[in-house]
Fold these 2 entries.
Entry 1:
Amino acid sequence: MALSPSDVARLGELARIDLTEEELHHLAPQLDVILEAVASVTLVAGDDIPPTSHALPLTNVFRDDVVRPSLPVADVLAAAPATEMDRFRVPRILEDNA
Amino acid sequence: MSAELIHRTAVEVAAAIAGGEVSAREVTAAHLQRIADVEAEIKAFLYVDGDRALAAADAIDARRAAGETLGPLAGVPLALKDIFTLKGAPTTCGSRILEGWKPPYDSTVTRRLKQAGIVILGKTNMDEFAMGSSTENSGYQTTHNPWDLTKIPGGSGGGSAAALAAFEAPLAIGTDTGGSIRQPASVTGTVGVKPTYGGTSRYGVVAMASSLDQPGPCGRTVLDTALLHQVIAGWDPLDSTSINAPVPDVVGAARSGDVRGMRIGVVTELGGEGYQPGVEQRFHEALEVLRGAGAEIVEVSCPNFTYALAAYYLIMPSEVSSNLARFDAMRYGLRVGDDGTRSAEEVMRLTGGPASGPR
C-alpha cells in the first residue's frame, strides 16, 4: 500500500497541521514505512494471540476519595496563553450559525 | 582546583563535600565555570540557572554545618533533560511550542533529586519531544559530541550525555523510549540505563509514547549511575504504571562487581548484520571479560525480536499522536492568531506550523 501526497494532506487536515507540497512528498514514503511495519506485525499477531494491554501484571487501583490540596489557581494559569474568570480562555469551537 | 574538581566522579565529589574538603558551593561554581567555558562549542544545555544552583548548594553547606548527615549524592551537580518539569523554570522538551512555559510543579524525579540534595544546574537539549536519535531535531540548537565536535552526541538525550562527557556535570537524567538514554551513552563513552518499565515514575515527564517511556540515570561510572538510580527509582502513587516493590540493590551490585555464577543471555536475533566491525568486536570482548570474571554466557533465541522494530514503529507513532494532541495552543506556551474572530481550528493551524520543527 502506497500513500499519495493527497492522503498525507488529508491526514494533515485532521491533525490541524498545514503542510507544504514539498513536505507532503517528503512524508508520504515515511508514512508508508509505518504501514509496512503494521503489515509485518500482523503476520505474527494472529487471532490465537490474546491482545496485551500492558507488559506488567498490573490491575487498576482505586484510592479513597479524599479531598487533598491542589495547586493554586494563579500558579496553574500563570503560563496559559489566555485566561478569563480563572479559566483557560480558548477561541470559539462552534460556528455562530450552528 | 576547579579543573580537578570537575574530573572527579560523583562519589568522590560527595565524599569531599561530606568530609569538608570542599564546599558544595565550590563544586557547583566549578561546574558552572566549566559550562561557561565550553558551552559555545558543546551546546548541551538549553537553560542554565546558576543562581538557583548556587542557592541549592548553599543549602547543602548549611545542612552540613548544622551537623546533619547528608545523603550519598548530596551537593553533587546534575544536568536534567528538558523533558522533566522543574517548578518555575523553562521546560520546553526541545520544542518552540513550549517556549516560555514554566511548569507550576516538579516531576517526581525532580522532587526526589532535590530531596537527595542533588544540585540541578539546568535543563539539557534534546530532539523535539524526544523524537529523534541525534539531538539535531531540537527546535533550538544542535548539540555536539565532546569527543569530536563534528559528530552527533546521539539522542534524544544528547544534551545530557554530552554534558557528562564534557565534564559539565558528573550526573545527568534522561528518558528512554526507544534508546534515548542508551544510544547517547554509547556514542559519548558514558553510562546510561533504561530501567525496567515501571521502575521509575513518569509523573511530570512530558509524554512521548507512554507505554514505553522511562526516566533513567546517566553518569560517567557504573557506581555513580547506580547511586542516582537509587535516588529516583521506586513506587510513586502519582504514576499508575509504577511498580509497588522494593528497588533492587543496584548500588551493592555496582560496588561488588561480582558476576560469578551469573548466567548472562546473548540474544541470537540481535546479532548479525548492521554493526560496524569495531562495535561488534568490542561487544565480544566484553563477553570475554564477563566470562573471565566468572559469568556463564549462554546464547538465547528470541524469534519474535525480529518484529521488535516493526512493533515499535506501530506503537510509538500511535501513542505520540495521542500524547502530542495536548500541544494544541490552548493550554500551554504559544498561541498564534487568536484575534477574537478566528476559530480554534484556525488558531491551532497557525500556531502549529511555525512553532514545531527547527527554527
Note: Chain B has twelve helices and eight strands.
Entry 2:
Amino acid sequence: MSGVIKAENLHKVYSETKIPVKALNGVNLEIMEGEFTAIVGPSGCGKTTLLNIIGGLDHPTMGNVLVANEDIANMKDGELIDFRLKNIGFVFQAYNLIPVLTTLENVEFIMLLQKQDKTQREKRSMELLEEMGIADKANMRPSELSGGQQQRVAVARALASKPKFILADEPTANLDSKSTENLLDIMAKMNKEENATFVFSTHDQRVIEKAKRIVTLEDGVIISDVKK
Amino acid sequence: MMILKIAWRNVWRSKGRSFVVMSSIVVGIWALIVGNGFMNGFMVGYMDEAINYDISNIQVHHPEFKQDFDINLSITDGLKKTEEIREWEGVEAVTTRTIVNGMIASTKKASGIQIRGIDKKRESEVTSLDSLIKEGAYFEGIKRNPIVIGAKLAENLKVKLRQKVVLTFNDSDGNITSAAFRVAGIVKSSSLNINERYAYVLQSDINTLLGIGDEIHEIAMLTSEGVHEGDILTKYNNTYSGDLVEDWKLIAPEMALMQEMYGSMLYVLMFIILTALIFGIINTMLMAVLERLKELGMLMAVGMNKLRVFIMILVETLSLAIISSPVGLFISFMTISYYRNVGVDLTNYSEGLEAFGYASILYPFVAQETYIVVTVGVIITSFLAAIYPAWKAVKLKPVEALHKI
C-alpha cells in the first residue's frame, strides 16, 4: 500500500477574531490507499478543519499536504478546484445534492465535469446506483428521496469518478440508525470491492466501530492513531 | 450542456420570482415599443399635417420675399417655371400662390392674417386643402370674392358661412386697399396656420386687387413617394438661378429638429426603462445567488470551476430575457397594430393638442428596426445585470459557503 495523503506538521490558526484560534497544532498524518479511516474527537477539536485542508478546500497556516505526491497546500484556488475534481470525492453532512438534477444526473455530474464519455458515465452511474440499492430512484429528484437515500446518492457521486480518496464530513449526522447502518455497509463494501480510500470525521459510535483506523484529535493535536 | 440544463432548471425553481422578472421584462419592452410608437404617431401626425396641408415638400420664393413679404418681390417667370416643373419626374403636383399680409375684419372683430391667393384646383392637388372643409364648400356657392378661412379664425371673428368679411392690405403701389369677401367655406385642421392665421382667396381675385397681373410669390411642390427632396432642390438650382428654393426642413427647421429629437427619444426612453430593469434583474438574481450559497459552495468544492459557475448564472439571467422578450414583442406588436388601425382618440384633449399643432387622433407606428433595437437592448441589459450576481457567486469560498445556513 502507498500513501495517498501525507500531512506534515499542519498548523491552522483562525485570526478572524481578536484572539487567534489554533484549530490544528502540528498534525502529522499519512493515509494509505484503501484505508477506511475515521477521524474522531470532541466538537472543536479540529476534525473538519483537517478534512477541509486535506480536501483542498482550505489552506493551512503552516505545513504541507501531499496528495498523490502533489503539494496542495500552496496551490492557488483555481488549481485546487481542478485538483479536487480529478482526485477527491466529497460526501457532506447535509448531502448537498443538486436539487434540480435527477438522482442519475447527480451521480453523473462529476464525470460530466471531467468530460467523460456519456455511455461510460451512464453505465458507471447505474452500476453504482444498483450497488447502493437505489437504481429504481434514478429519475427522481433529491427532494423525492429520504435522507438515507440522498446520502447514498452523495456517496455514489463521490465514488463515480474513482477519485484517489473520499472525504466524508459527518456523513451520518443527519441519518436515523437504520439509514446509518445501510450507509456504513455500503461504504465498507465499496472500500472492499473498489479499494476506495475513505476518510471521514464522525462522532457516531457506529461509524467508529466500522472504521479500520481511528485517528483521535484533541485541541488540534492527534492524541491517538489506532489501526484495527 | 449540463451547465445549461442546471441553469434552465434553476430558472423554474422559483417560478414566482422568475415570473416577476419576466413580467418586468415584458412590461419594459411593451412600454418602450408602445411609448416609441405613440411618439412616432405624434411626430408623424404633426409633420404630415404641416407638410400635406400647409408647407408642402418644396417651396420657391424670390430670395428676399420672406424678409418683409413685399408683394413686389415675385418669382421671375413664375408661371412658366411652374408649367415646366409640373413635367419633372419626382414632382407629383405643383401650385402657385400669391401671398400678402393684411387684416381681416368682420362686423365684430378684426385680426392680422396672411392672405393666400391660390389656384383652387392645383392647391387641392398639392395640399388637399379641400379635404379640410368642415362647413360650406371649397370656393363654391359664392359668385364674387369667395374666401375660405379656418374654424378658429371664424370663431374669433364671429363670422359664419356666407357672411361678409373685409380684407385690408397694401397694393403694389403701396396704397391701402380693402375688399369685401364672403365666406364660402370653413376649414378645420390641427395646424395653427390653417386654423387661425391664413385666409384663402382665389389667386385671380387677389392679384387683380393687388394690381400685379399674373405675378406669383410662391411655388409649392409635392414630391412623389420615395423621392429625395434634395434631388429636386439641386435640379431646380441647376435649371433656374436667382430664386430661393427650400425643402420643408429649411422652411420649418423646428420640424427637422423635432424629427431628430423624436428619433433620439427612443434611446432616452430605452435608457430610463432599461436602467430600471437592470436594477430589478440584479436584485432578483442576487437573491437567487444568496439563497443558494451552500449549493454553489458544493459545486465549487466538487470541482466546478469559476468560469462554469459564472456561465451558469449568466445563462439563468439570459434565459429569463430570452423567454420574455418574444412575449413582450408580441404584445407590443399587437398593441401597435390595433391602434394603428383604429387610432387613439384624444379629442378630449384636442384643444390643448391643436394649440401645439398636434392632431387629436393619434396613429402610433413603430419602425421594424425598433423591435430589433429594443430586443438587443434588453438582452444586453440582462447580460450586464447578470455580471454582478455571477461575480458574487464566483467570489465565494467553498469552505465558507458550505457552512452557510
Note: Chain B has a mean pLDDT of 91.
